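Request: When convenient, would you put together a sequence paired with its structure tokens?
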Amino acid sequence: MSSTTSGVTPYYFVPSPSRHPAMAALGLFFVILGASQWVNGADWGKYSLAFGMVWFLGVLFQWFSEAVRESEGGQYGHKVDLSFRWSMSWFIFSEVMFFGAFFTALWWARGHSIPALGSVENALLWPDFKAVWPSLAAGVTGSPAGIVEPFLTMTPFWLPTINTALLLSSGVTLTIAHHALIAGNRTKTIGFMWMTVLLGIVFLFVQGYEYFHAYHELNLKLTSGVYGSTFYMLTGFHGFHVFVGMLMLLFITLRLQKGHFTAERHFGFEGAAWYWHFVDVVWLGLYVLVYWL
């Protein structure tokens, strides 16, 4: 609680002791316990995982709801706004490093591992191995030992290109909504926010159809060598980030409809917008490196 008179924004808000961190940690404990046991063959692990996720999400809902009430109650001043901005900046930086590691894995496999496996020394062990990235030469999608089933590679036409257009369009609609909020036009803001959320949902459905096509028609699976693992790792985690960003924008839109945020105070909106634009930029890099090269 704040040590200031009611109705006056405090210099810095000090929250009262909260159960939320401990309850969130408890939920994550059951998530990790269940996931580790499930992948090791224990059938009860999936129930522990489901229970932990429901518990964790319930705690987050209560925690965020409390933060919204504090914000709308005028408890968050300039210092808290700065802390939110720094926190979101570091969070996005950590996500940059997250995807940077995955892009590096793709580059290392293509530029170093495969050429090394095709060296003179390894030619004696795998005389039929072709040291070429699968998307660069037809027929280079199986393994000499028959461990990897032959598969077809993904091309940028047309589903990935459609998804690129969807994400770029969503960035435009989100920017229009932001400028409308600054101008005090709440109706226009809400309309373009719903458009942004809808574009995010359509992106996820298109990606789901792309995975169905890849699995059933191209025989491209997570087990399809390093190409399959890096393809699903990059596109799958990006899709998860699109899902999280879409939820952020959805809840921001619902708050806008309740009258939250003003032209002067709307960092909740800005933070979600930062995250969405980050997701857009990552997709552009992914679109070029995964689908074109």
